[in-house]
Amino acid sequence: MLRPLIDAIAREFNPGLCIQDIRNHWSCRCTVPGPGMHRAAALLEARYRENGASDARVYPFPADDRSEWLNGRRNPLEWRPYGAELAVVSPSAEAGVICRWSDEPLCLICNSRPTPPGGVEAEVVVQQGLLPIDGVVAGQWSGRILFTDQFPSTVAAAAHKAGCIGLISDCVSPPWLAAHPPVREPQDVPDLVMWTIFSGRRSAPPLFGFNLSPRQGQRLRALARSASAPLRVRAVVETEMVEGISDLVHAALPGTDLAHEEVWLLAHLSEPGARDNASGCCMGLELARVLGDLTRRGVLPPLRRTIRFLHATEVEGFLPYIEQRRQDLGNVVAGLCCDSVGQDFALCGGEAVLFLAPEANASFIDGLMQTLLAAAAAVPARRFTADNYAIFPWHTEPFFGNDAFIADGFFDIPTPQVSTWPDRHYHSNQDLPHQISANTLGRMAIAFGSYLYLMATAGAGEARWLAGLAVQDWKRRLAAAVNDALLEAAPAPAAAVARLRHLTLQAQDAVVQTARFAPADASLAADLRSLSGRVAAWGENEAAEAWALLGGKGDVPARTAVAGDGLGAIPRRCCWTAPVLEGGLKDRLAALSADGAKPSRVWPWINGHRSVGEIAERLVHGGAIDPAVIHAYLGIMVEAGAVAWVEG
């Protein structure tokens, strides 16, 4: 079934052309809303037109820190850098330039505020380690520049409180990498300059800042230690923060009989690397050409649904467009997040990573994308490269978010994210075009192109096949959960049974989600209900076997019964995230939470399809919540305007 599709995409994909697009995109040095982003957006728009996509254009959404979308979210101000330089002034024997923006643009922290004309001269305060805002006294470093080994945005508030006018940082690893090791150390990358950002909000501390490599930082620290008088530097920063434009690039491959239904590819503009994320954006360009050519020439049957390609700043940049299309989101059957998809694993380390659907909105896409990645990995390397030893390792990890945020139940657009990780050059001046792999790009193109085409052409027959893939996926997950329990020092049979039942409910969700490809097909709906029932019975049998395997005594624990009034009512969210309540509503929510029920756990499970009873079933694992409490919580949210009931 898949082989003709895979072979057609593999033959048509041009890795050299894709790499050339990546090189050109990377040269735009696109970081935050500003000139680099405008250049990259214009380039993508032109290339989509050349590649045969329709309606290629740039939407100029406001970057003004005022306009609001999706219940209060705003794009930051536009940042325009013109020049910057940091130099040692004293001790005079060591005077000289440390770094220049014209030599390395990433040495200037994005959203740095300007210095007065001619720059400023200031004493340097050297600090190491965390610097919380309550760790400084107001004004204690007035007029000075803080030199830190921390990520700039994490110490900006404290530096501003202490009276600093700017920052210098030789940090090479943002704090969030601690949860995704290996953590990059200075000795690993002595000449790496980290890409960092200050907030682009009007309310942000008015600081400028410079990023140094570990080698530059070590020299400056040694100079500060050995100097007989305080180290002084001159900083010149020529930038401006203005109410400007945050670009969203749009292009499409139109569908036919189901053109009003859509499949989205999202890849963010707002990072300066060749891999992160020029490779994601340019993968969209090449897939538009490949799928357009294959369908126009009749190699593949026409697209039924429209494939839409979208590029903007990560997450926030897509929100204005989504707000405009809010009433149409139900017609978006699936999405795809392309983030860092061209890595040469021999040069950068890492593997391809498929981030799975969120627990609270389980999806058939996980089983499908795993099938496609496995098929892509099996294609001979010679299809794309002369290196017969080129590898394509991959694995899965839990939901991450990123531009796959539209997989959340509020949007309810099943969206796999595929990235490459870890990357020793992540977010730095060393994320370069020569580290792009034709082998990796080719295999990603097979998986992504096949996915987009299948989503754009699927009907009732394909929905049944996709549901079957979902069942196979979740069977593997239940088996893995049993293996994990066996590895525990003291296996807990009851906990394992509860876990397996919870996974079985998610498997049922993934099966019935495929109905979106033929929502009016009564036969498909009946088949999916039947399959869901068989999955439930199979999962219960697996739970019983796990109970015995793990040494459970007596009968398998009974399922927690869900009973009460109004179990069939279906809530839907009116906003993405739960609101911050005030006054009486806040008090009523606190009263509901007084016995430790944590009704806020209900929120992520609301997707506009699940009933109150189904939500209650899924909350059993982790602590059952009485349906009456769920109804009370939903009632509060209805009064807050955050939830509505689905009619009928």
Describe this entry's structure for a reader.
The chain has 648 residues and is an alpha/beta fold. It has four domains: 3-75 and 245-457, 3-Layer(aba) Sandwich (Aminopeptidase); 80-242, Glucose Oxidase, domain 1; 483-559, no CATH class; 561-648. It has helices spanning 3-12, 15-26, 35-50, 152-161, 214-226, 278-296, 319-324, 345-348, 365-378, 438-457, 460-487, 493-513, 522-549, 583-592, 612-619, 627-639; strands spanning 54-63, 78-90, 96-100, 120-126, 145-148, 166-169, 208-211, 232-242, 244-253, 262-266, 306-311, 332-338, 351-355, 394-397, 417-421, 571-573, 643-645. It has an eight-stranded mixed beta sheet, covered by helices on one side. A seven-stranded mixed beta sheet has the order 3-2-8-4-5-6-7, sandwiched between helices. Helix 1 (3-12) packs across helix 10. The model has no long low-confidence stretch (mean pLDDT 96).
Brief description of this entry?
With 648 residues, the chain is an alpha/beta fold.
Structural class by helix and strand composition: alpha/beta
Assembly state here?
single chain
How much helix is in the residues? 25-40%
Name of the CATH homologous superfamily of the largest domain = Zn peptidases
Instruction: Give me the Rg, rounded.
Output: 27 Å
Distance between the termini: 39 Å
* Percentage beta strand: 15-25%
Count the strands? 17
